[in-house]
Amino acid sequence: MEILDTVLPVFLVIGLGAFLRARGFLDAVVRRALTRLVFYVSAPALLIVSTADTPVTESLNPRVLGAVIAVTVVTAFVTYALSFRTAPARRGVIAQGAHRSNMVFMGLPILAYAQGDAAVGAAGVLIGVMVVVYNALAVVLLSLPHGRGDGGLARRGLAAVGEMGRNPLIIGCVVGLFLAVANLPIPLMLDRALGLVGRTALPLALLTVGADLDFRDLRGDVVSTGAVALVKLIVYPGLVALALLALGLRGPALAAPVLLMASPTAVVSFVMAREMRGDHRLASSIVIGTTLASLVTYTAWLVVLRTG
Fold it and tell me: The domain that contains 237 carries what CATH number?
């Protein structure tokens, strides 16, 4: 029951988002506005406060970062290689869907319920670093099927670097880490204001996830979506867990990165696929399929991590 009390509230709010969309409360304009609010305001505020309040020794662990990055890169390119028989427009989408985790909109709510608000701060640096890694991999994986002779990969790479420099999640993590390293306290009135805004991030994120679910996008891609979901929700976080176990991590230090990486495929993967000539319909199917399946896999991971 304790595990169900962790998982079910998250998915009940997601269900509420789907219901509100069906009832006309969350139309396309409102959904886009809420997503932008979380991405540009609420989540960065949450990351600033939580990372700044966390000792650097807990949030900045080079061994953990290195292990998660290594597993991510291997998963991405092995999945891409295994999809060589599919159409070019689908290869990068499959590889991206197999590793790009929805850390902020899904991972953080689960982590907060499972381990408390302190775990969010400890995960801040990992989130910031993986946002960079995911974006870099997306550019490469989605460009490779279309060739590189026209310099497209280089142009997209430079554009991605510029976007990452302006990414509010990365900026929030960097600001919070700087405050923690410099041991600079946030003025009380600002700390409370950021805290109030940051606390809206998790419920709003879950509502937007539910409101964006369109089950019609699953039609025609069930087999491909199921294969990607198997890698994304079980194989990929499983490899992360094995790598961290090999480093001697146990308990919450092990569980936090695994729970973040076990989150479903990020919604932004659909946007990247659409902008870079990938099969965006398959990308949408993967996002929805992994989100639905994560109800079961998150429960299983919490059981494994609790008993392991």
Answer: 1.20.1530.20
Q: What is the mean pLDDT of residues 45-57?
A: 93
What CA–CA distance (Å, rounded) separates 33 from 41?
11
Tell me which residue of 80, 108, 85, 81 sits closest to 96, measured CA to CA: 80
List the structure tokens of 268: 């932004």
Tally of CB atoms within 10 A around 242 = 12
Straight-line distance from the first to the last Cα atom of the chain, in angstroms, rounded to the nearest whole number: 18
Could you write out the three-class secondary structure of 81-105? HHCCCCCHHHHHHHHHHCCCECHHH
- Taking a C-beta distance cutoff of 8 angstroms, is the pair 225, 285 a contact? yes
pLDDT tens digits, 239-288: 999 999 999 999 999 999 999 999 999 988 988 888 888 898 899 999 99
The rounded mean pLDDT for the chain is 91
Q: What are phi and psi of 44, to 5 degrees?
A: -60, -40
Q: 229: Cβ–Cβ under 8 A, 6 or more apart, which residues?
A: 286, 289, 290, 293
Q: Could you tell me which of 146, 138, 157, 135 has the C-alpha nearest to residue 95?
A: 138
Number of structural domains (the chain) is: 1
Integer Cα distance of 306 and 3 in angstroms? 9
- In this structure, what is the dihedral angle of CA atoms 86, 87, 88, 89, given to the nearest 10 degrees? -110
Range of the domain at 248: 2-307
